[in-house]
Amino acid sequence: MLTNKGKYGLKAMVHLAGLEQGALAQVADIAEANSISKKFLDHILTELRHAGLVYSKKGRGGGYALARPAHEIQVGKIVRVLDGPLAPLPCASVTAFRPCDDCRDLKTCAVRLIMIDARNAIANVLDNRTLAELWTLTNPPEHAAMYHI
Q1: What share of the chain is helix, strand, coil (3-state, %, to 5)?
Q2: Considering the entire predicted model, what is its pTM?
Q3: Residue 79 domain-assigned?
C-alpha cells in the first residue's frame, strides 16, 4: 500500500514537473499547493535529493527542481525511494526478498505465489509510467514543451 510519504512525494514530483525549465520551487509553495505539511515535505524532498531525483539550491532564489527530465523518471523509482519495495510481502519482493518465518516451501506457498502476481502487476504499471505521463494526466499535452516534460 502506498503510504502518505509516497503519495506526497509523487504530488511534489508532479508539482516540480510542472515548473518551467530553469525554475525552482520553494518547499513552502509546494507544500501549500498540495496540502502537505512543510516539515514532512522537507523530509521527503531530502530523500528524493539523496536518490538523485531532485536537486536543491540554497539561499536567495533557491528551491527544488527535478534532477533530470520528467520523461526519464519512472513512477516506480519514486515509490521505491520513499516507500521501499513494491511487494506486499517480503517473500514476494525482487529487491528485498526475505522468506517468511512460517513458510514451509517457497515454491508451493499459495499466498506467496499470488503476492508475486500482485507485485508484478503493480511493478508493470509503475515501472512503465514516467513522471511526465503522470503530469499529463491533469495537464494539457500542448503545454509540455514549456516544462521538464
Answers
A1: 55, 10, 40
A2: 0.88
A3: no
Whether 52 and 26 map to the same domain: the answer is yes
Grid cell listed for 126: 509503475
* 70 DSSP 8-state letter: G
Judgement on whether residues 67 and 92 belong to the same structural domain of the protein? no
pLDDT in tens, 72-119: 999 999 999 999 999 999 998 988 899 888 888 888 899 999 999 999
Regarding whether 113 and 53 lie in a shared domain, the answer is no
Q: Could you tell me which of 83, 143, 92 has the C-alpha nearest to residue 114? A: 92
In contact, 94 and 87? CB cutoff 8 Å: yes
Write out the residue range of the structural domain in which residue 60 sits: 1-73+130-149
What does the alpha-carbon distance between residue 45 and residue 24 come to, in Å, rounded to a whole number?
13
Residues belonging to the chain: 149
Q: Please check whether residue 10 is in contact with residue 77, taking contact to mean a CB–CB distance below 8 angstroms.
A: no
